[in-house]
What does this fold into?
Amino acid sequence: MKLAGRRAVITGASQGLGREIAEAYLREGADVVLCARDERAIDETLALFRSTYPARVVAGRRTDVGVEAQIDELFALAETALGAVDTVVVNAGVYGPKGAIGEVDWDAWVSAIQINLIGAVYTCRRALPLLRAAGNGKVIILSGGGATRPLPNVSAYAASKAGVVRFGETLAEELRGEGIDVNMIAPGALNTRLLDEILAAGPEVVGADFYAQAERQAASGGTPLALGADLAVFLGSRESDGITGKLISAQWDPWQTFGAQKSRLDGDVYTLRRIVPEDRGWSW
It folds into this structure.
């Protein structure tokens, strides 16, 4: 098993990709502490996983990652249940309000930033002492489409996802040489509750182009959740040791071959960067 002996905290784990990652970790031998904002959903998930994987430690609690005290309580539980933590999967997130920035509810916009960006950063900050103590730490942050291109009418999501990627790249540099790898996952176009929100909002709110894209995604079935979960397993395993500071597409990047390409992954490949005229062959 690829994750035998690993001890992971996974946020946003009661549904969608987070739940898929949690089950993949259990299947590959990890012990886990899980959380989500919906108390009933996380309790049902914990009960199912304890029944399905009786040899594994499965613990968790309701946690709003936008509230620092609740993240503190989550990691206190993790220390008690797991004894140590060497892997953190930062998955919890929301789309936030939909519509033009001048029209959306401002408090809702700020709340989305608090959950997606501040909550992600604080989760990593809270985990650092445990990861350092473990000696071989893994931080895996879930990104999204907003990290690499503008998303009109979903600005809180776009800004927060770009922010967590740059934060992850920065954290990777801060931790370089400490044996802690930090990477980000672009999971692809997933048919989850977030897609349902876009379809429910309608083209008048999210824009005709984005809505049409969502309709096509819904019809096609979207990117399989298993792709993102498999990449999360790879990044949580010893096979990925030394790969850090990367934004990796589960669907489009050949990450299955990265173990043999580590020496070529030290530069700016798979990172956010500014495009200058020379990149286009122009000599302004």
Observations:
- The CA atoms of residues 147 and 177 lie 26 Å apart.
- The chain has a mean pLDDT of 92.
